[in-house]
Predict the structure.
Amino acid sequence: MHHAYYIEGPLSAFEAYKTHLQPLYAKEHDRFGIEEARALITLALLKNFKDTTFLVAAASITTEAQQALLKLLEEPQEGTTFLLMVPHGMLLPTLKSRMLAYPELPQGSTLPVRLNLAVQFLKASGKDRSDLIAKLLKDDEGVRERVRDFVNALEAELYKKVGEPKARQGLEDIAMVRQYLGDRSPSLKMLLEHLAVALPTI
């Protein structure tokens, strides 16, 4: 078994891979920067994390972070395995060359996301989309997690039509919104309203 793998695709698959792999360490990031890379390196070199599988997902990853991970992937602690999940085209060739593509999940793997609401949203337009946003934001408890799941579900649906220019533009808008979701106090209503206007009707 190789010690480092990459998974390119929508982050909506994170929970499915987490369930399938049952890693000892799993974390999802809106933005993976140099500080996150250093923290992962420190953790991965601790003796109690020997024989650990690390699953890290990132909506965006900086060049500095990838360069910092190079040495870790070249000289990992014996027994450790790394899986890095990012959108397509985000990995530097130098980092990607030290990893293998992880196999796709077996058929039947499910994603615990709000797919039904996402499908409704993408089929709707105008006021109907606004009504769905209001429904999603109605209860304050756990709202940020609900919005994150919803954005992941939108991404998964649009990804099915990645060959179409409108869908590709929509995926870029979703990637931008996901980055803002990582801010300390994002305006969830404003971000979702942007998607209501920007995403195509499918």
Observations:
- The mean pLDDT is 87.
- The longest strand covers residues 53-58.
